[in-house]
Amino acid sequence: MSTTERSPGDRPVWSKSAPEAHLDQSDDAQLEGDLPYTPGSARGALAHQAFRSVWLGTFASNVGTWMQNIALGVFAYQLTHSASYVAIIGFAQLGPLFLLSIVGGALADLVDRKRLLVLCQVEQLAFSALLAWAAYQRHPSTLVVFSCVLAVGVGNALNAPVFSAVLPVLVPRRDLPGAVSLQSAQMNLSRVIGPAIGGLLLAVVHPSGIFALNAVTYGFAIYVIARAKLIRTTDEPGHPGVPSGLSRLLGGLAVARQDALVRYCLVTIALVSFFCLPFIGLMPVIAARDVHIDPAGSLYGLLYALFGLGAALGAVSVGSVFVTVKRATLIRWGLTGFTVFLLAFGLAGTIGVAYPFVFLLGYAYFVTVTALSTTLQAHIADSVRGRVMALWIMGFGGTVPLGLLAAGWMASATSVRAVVVSGSGMALAICALAWFRAPALLGADGPAIETAGGR
Predict the structure, then answer these.
(1) pTM for the structure as a whole
(2) What's the CATH code, domain 40-233+248-442?
């Protein structure tokens, strides 16, 4: 969507302002011909020191988070041997994303983002340490464990949209696709390294030790965020034309209602997350009941790591080998692969069959997610970025625990295999929508690195 000449009162809230367009042009003039990388590539994003430092520090923290996640699922299953309790713990981890992300997004566009990020990291550190203490008790309380996980989830729900809003100001707009690709890759590389380390440690260390180690890793994120120099781009409340109160809180919904591209990205990720992703939270149950391996053993750690490795490679591919491919093409074929591989993984009855399909499933999934996220980030203006990305976080992570609760009940009533296979059926419907709808919205003839805002 290119910006046209309008009076300030007529300009849509999602369009780029004149100062932003000027900054984009300045960045292009400064970088044109001077940097030996393809604009929009992952290498281009890493050329910027601020982004590189924050990326590495938060990567270390995310490795600890995924060590905790794999240990937490196993700990919950061993504590109760209940698929329902595993699902409830999964809800405590991610449920706050659905309920509180919109608040975090509003705060991201209102208060100092650096201070809010540091505060959220400190809160998660504290409750991860408390979780380690609770798990170390002779008879751990299921209620206390749930409460600690829920508190960490609340901190993550407020942190996630703020971090998504900070990411674009660490690189020029032309390198935003590479930055989004690397951020997705980071999250999924941590899914590889964290479970691999966690799987090895689980054999010799009590889960409480892994929870304590995760608390320490938050220190890396706190350090790099505190040192980073962020550009303050938030609106000043009280100025004419700046929404306040409920209008500010629901600003992202207003953008989604008026902008078809934003609406498509948000609805697609929400549908995939709710109907197709509960298998991630139920992975310990799948391991024990369907592929017949010990969820506390190294074979399970490898299963989880292969999914994360595939996802990481899928995310990196969008910012490297697929950097010139149209986003509509990536979304359509990514969803097609996701549908096929989810069905194959659901029907796999042995670990040898499950391994290759879970890898391919992760790859197709994050090609799709990264293409959608890059499209959305490049389309929106910074003044509403926090609130729109809060809706993305709600769709990406917040709907997963709701689907997981339903899937936990369905798995108890039928089987976990039925949950995964039914998810592939819904993925097929989402895929069909993408083939008919995505090209019209994203521009079937435009290159992937063009943005809706124009330059």
Answers:
(1) 0.67
(2) 1.20.1250.20
